[in-house]
Amino acid sequence: MSLTEPELGARLLKRARAAIEHALELGPTPAPDPDLSERGATFVTLTRNGQLRGCIGSLKPHRALADDVVANAQSAALRDPRFAALTAEEWPDIRVEVSLLGRAEFLDAKSEAEVIAQLRPGEDGVIFFNGCQQATFLPQVWAQLPDPRDFLAELKKKAGLSPDYWSSAVMVATYPVRKWREDDA
């Protein structure tokens, strides 16, 4: 991919917006974008009046970036289980953010204290694994949960566990994110 960082962000945001407009029957199918043919993992976050309205994404790069951002944008708008499907009436108030995930790396930690010591607030996206249970928070969540203990406790709750849960089976991985928000574009 030979796009500059600002070009990449603008293309991803435009593609996410076009995908949602198409899903809401407000616009055409997004045009192919050969510059976004590399595999990539994205999260698309939607906000309305500063409040979360949907967020869906991929943790692993399993399809072309162009396809990943379209699928995740439409899912964030229509299939986030925390919210009713987005309506055409709401659409003018929606702001789109696209996060492009880097490669996840497992932390070498045997205890919760060791995990907490290695987390980098504001920088790391975090994935919590416990057998089949898993949950992730993008680095943006650190703005609401700046304390690593609180961040990890909420992540465990998101995975369906108690905030004080810990087991030798727990694994934690972190990943970097490059993100673009329509307000910044």
Mind explaining what this structure looks like?
The chain is an alpha+beta fold and about 180 residues long. The protein has 2 domains: about 5-100, Glycoprotein, Type 4 Pilin (2-Layer Sandwich), CATH 3.30.700.20; about 105-175, Dna Ligase, domain 1, CATH 3.30.1490.150. The chain has helices at about 5-25, 65-80, 110-120, 150-160, and strands spanning about 40-50, 50-55, 95-100, 105, 125-130, 135, 170-175, 175-180. The strands form 2 sheets. The chain has a 4-stranded antiparallel beta sheet, covered by helices on one side. Helix 1 packs across helix 2 (about 65-80). The mean pLDDT is about 95.
Unreliably modeled segments: none
The DSSP helix count reads 4
| Helical content band | 25-40%
CATH-defined topology of the largest domain:
Glycoprotein, Type 4 Pilin
Any idea what the shape is?
Answer: globular
Q: What Rg, in angstroms, do the CA atoms define?
A: 17 Å
User: Strand arrangement, largest sheet?
Assistant: 2-1-3-8
CATH superfamily of the largest domain, called what? Hypothetical protein ph0010, domain 1
Q: How much strand?
A: 15-25%
Distance between the termini: 20 Å
- CATH architecture of the largest domain, by name, is 2-Layer Sandwich
At the first level of CATH, what is the class of the largest domain?
Alpha Beta
Structural class: alpha+beta
Short summary:
This protein is α+β, with helices and mostly antiparallel strands. The chain has helices at residues 5-23, 65-78, 112-118, 148-158; strands at 42-48, 51-57, 94-101, 105-106, 125-130, 133-137, 171-175, 177-181. It has 2 domains: 5-101, 2-Layer Sandwich (Glycoprotein, Type 4 Pilin); 105-177, Dna Ligase, domain 1.
